[in-house]
Amino acid sequence: MTSDFDYELPPGRVARYPAAHRADSRLLVLSRSTGRIEHRRFRDLPGLMGAGDLLVVNDTRVFPARLLGRKPTGAAGEVLLLRPAADDDDRVWEALVRPGRKLKPGRLLRVAPELAVRVLSACPDGRRIVRLESGMAASEALRRFGHTPLPPYIERDDEPLDRERYQTVYARHEGSVAAPTAGLHFTQALLDEVAGLGVARTALTLHVGTATFRPVEVDDPAHHGMDAEHYVVPDAAAREYGRCREREGRVWAVGTTVVRTLESVAEGGGRIRAGAGTTDLFIRPPFEFRAVDCLVTNFHLPRSTLLMLVAAFADIDTVRAAYAEAIATGYRFYSYGDAMALLP
């Protein structure tokens, strides 16, 4: 039941800002087989790895998807761009709007003298198809006037620091409206240290949507619908994965997005399928993992699909005990919070 994945987080435990230095975040190390817990710093992660292991990261890049503006009446409005909605026009997007009842088809939101957003149509699920109206390219308009789409639980406006810190150091392919937050703790120096230990690294791409924050609102998680998200698994990643399995190394997934992608393309026999596609895979207990041995992840919201994935990877009672320990010992939670490493 969904209530099995609920917990109480004391006030003040949601991290509203990142740690001063990425790798200084705390790291709760959890053995899935024994339930043993160790308290480390993220910079200690390389010491948990071994030569021949493979670190798999998600190299998606968050784009400045949030646009704030005014309606002709002067009332405030907001648009969150989700994904392009037209192959031949980069100005047309699928979006969420606020206030939804007021921003109907035909309405205009003025973001800046050089940029407006016009609502073209409404989708059955409440989303909108909108068009950016500007004399500049859409990418330039977003760079100049877009805001970093921080999660609502951070409860503050975005600041210049978020353009850098709500982004992994290896982000390459733009398309996410939420960061793959487990990767926020890595620095280039830490990645170099991992490589120096004989640990290989490869990247795939999964563009993260807003559904990552959506709680499961039905009593039975089996009735919860997942949004499909676009992924790309390069040939190089599939080859690197196969080599890791041949040498009997462990596969480390950096984040739940990597887990969902790898498990979506797992073919058995130590192989994954290269290519592009979409996945709506909902990983929850019980689930037989075929592609991942170790998981690095942040602490997730109650009743979320992300927490259910972690509980499937370890064990719901083990994860519940680890979360209780993290709360008792002052860990910071959610996107800008601390991390955990789940080992065999």
| CATH topology term of the largest domain | QueA-like
Q: Largest sheet, if any?
A: 9 strands, mixed
What number of domains? 2
CATH class of the largest domain: Alpha Beta
> What is the N-to-C order of secondary-structure elements (H for helix, E for strand)?
EEEEEEEEEEHHEHEEHEHEEEEHHE
Helix content: 10-25%
Mean pLDDT: 94
Number of helices: 7
Distance between the termini: 26 Å
Radius of gyration, in Å, reads 20 Å
What's the number of extended β-strand segments? 19
The CATH homologous superfamily of the largest domain is called QueA-like
Low-confidence stretches: none
Give the neighbour order of strands across the main sheet: 2-1-19-18-14-3-12-13-17
Gross geometry = globular
Written description of the protein model:
The protein is α/β, with parallel strands linked by helices. The chain has 2 domains: 2-62 and 163-343, QueA-like (3-Layer(aba) Sandwich); 66-147, Thrombin, subunit H, CATH 2.40.10. The protein has 7 helices and 19 strands. The strands form 4 sheets. Strands 2-1-19-18-14-3-12-13-17 form a 9-stranded mixed sheet, with helices on one face. Strands 5-6-7-10-9-8 form a 6-stranded antiparallel sheet, covered by helices on one side. Strands 4-11 form a two-stranded parallel ribbon. The longest helix is centred in the last third of the chain and has 13 residues, at 316-328. The chain is globular and about 60 Å long.
Give a quick summary of the entry:
With 344 residues, this protein is α/β, with parallel strands linked by helices. The protein is 19% helix and 29% strand.
